[in-house]
């Protein structure tokens, strides 16, 4: 039995869709905060269970019988992600789960300026100490985030950012398919595995690509951190979100997202989607 958390979200929902291409629905269960939102899986014969990291009492039953458990990482920048992940891992141990897979990030590091990278690092330490076999899916930075992080370049002709560096922009759809393939090959991947697109373009390179796609000049404007934060405040962005996003640009500037790996392409049997396609 494979149990997948967060299946009403885009990432793990797509993973379940891919699993259903090769496995019978009877071998899959989803653990979600609101079972009513997982009706599309129930209609296909997938068992829907209530499982909420913030409601610990729901988790042991939600994880029961799992030979493999796919834990989605918290995507709420205001939450104590590590505490939520610890709760889920403890429940997995209690439920005697056979193996835990966790949606981590390629930049899982204790000193990463981008806060989720630090959370992923601590969560991987918790997994290693759990006594349960585990796999950490260190996905590249999701390429659909360019819609936010590259800014409104279509309208302005400018990509204005406070830091530039190589980022292995990776399609969330590809990461979801890779997770399904790894789940379907139990034990083939242990510990941290890196899943990224094959290239890590800078924002300067993306500006050139955007120029080609738009048929008009798009230029990169590097801004001082404080000036960029002030511009975001003037645009009405909450200060907490500005600090959160600034951490990404600082991490990119410091090379935290620069690494690439061929594993994603090897798993998919094709070239992964590119940042150009995302733009």
Give the total of beta strands: 9
CATH superfamily of the domain at 2-141 and 171-197 and 259-274, by name, is NAD(P)-binding Rossmann-like Domain
Structural class: alpha/beta
Oligomer: single chain
Mean pLDDT, to the nearest integer, reads 96
Enumerate the spans where pLDDT stays under 50 for 5 or more consecutive residues: none
- In CATH, the topology of the domain at 2-141 and 171-197 and 259-274 is named Rossmann fold
- CA distance, first residue to last residue: 38 Å
Report strand %: 15-25%
Shape: globular
At CATH level 2, the architecture of the domain at 2-141 and 171-197 and 259-274 is: 3-Layer(aba) Sandwich
Radius of gyration: 19 Å
Percent helix range: 40-55%
The number of helical segments is 13
| Strand and helix order | EHEHEHEHEHEHHEHEHEHHHH
CATH uppermost class of the domain at 2-141 and 171-197 and 259-274: Alpha Beta
Largest sheet: 7 strands, parallel
Can you list the strand order of the major beta sheet? 3-2-1-4-5-6-8
């Amino acid at each position: 039995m494979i149990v997948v958390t967060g299946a009403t979200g885009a990432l793990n929902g797509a993973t379940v869709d891919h699993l259903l291409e090769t496995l019978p629905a009877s071998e899959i269960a989803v653990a979600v905060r609101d079972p009513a939102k997982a009706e599309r899986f129930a209609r296909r014969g997938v068992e829907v269970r209530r499982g909420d990291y913030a409601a610990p009492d729901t988790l042991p039953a939600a994880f029961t019988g799992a030979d493999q458990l796919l834990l989605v990482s918290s995507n709420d920048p205001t939450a104590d992600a590590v505490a939520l992940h610890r709760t889920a891992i403890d429940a997995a141990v209690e439920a005697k789960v056979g193996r835990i897979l966790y949606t981590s990030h390629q930049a899982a590091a204790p000193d990463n300026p981008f806060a989720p990278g630090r959370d992923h690092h601590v969560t991987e330490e918790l997994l290693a100490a759990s006594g349960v076999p585990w796999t950490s899916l260190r996905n590249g930075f999701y390429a659909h985030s360019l819609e936010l992080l590259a800014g409104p370049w279509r309208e302005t002709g400018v990509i204005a950012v406070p830091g530039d560096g190589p980022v292995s922009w990776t399609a969330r759809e590809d990461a979801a398919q890779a997770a399904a393939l790894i789940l379907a090959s139990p034990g083939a991947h242990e510990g941290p595995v890196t899943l990224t697109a094959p290239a890590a373009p800078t924002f300067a390179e993306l500006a050139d690509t955007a120029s080609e796609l738009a048929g008009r000049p798009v230029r990169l404007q590097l801004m001082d951190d404080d000036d960029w934060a002030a511009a975001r405040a003037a645009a009405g962005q909450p200060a907490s979100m500005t600090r959160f996003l600034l951490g990404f640009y600082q991490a990119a500037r410091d090379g935290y997202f620069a690494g690439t790996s061929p594993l994603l392409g090897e798993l998919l049997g094709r070239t992964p989607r590119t940042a150009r396609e995302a733009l």
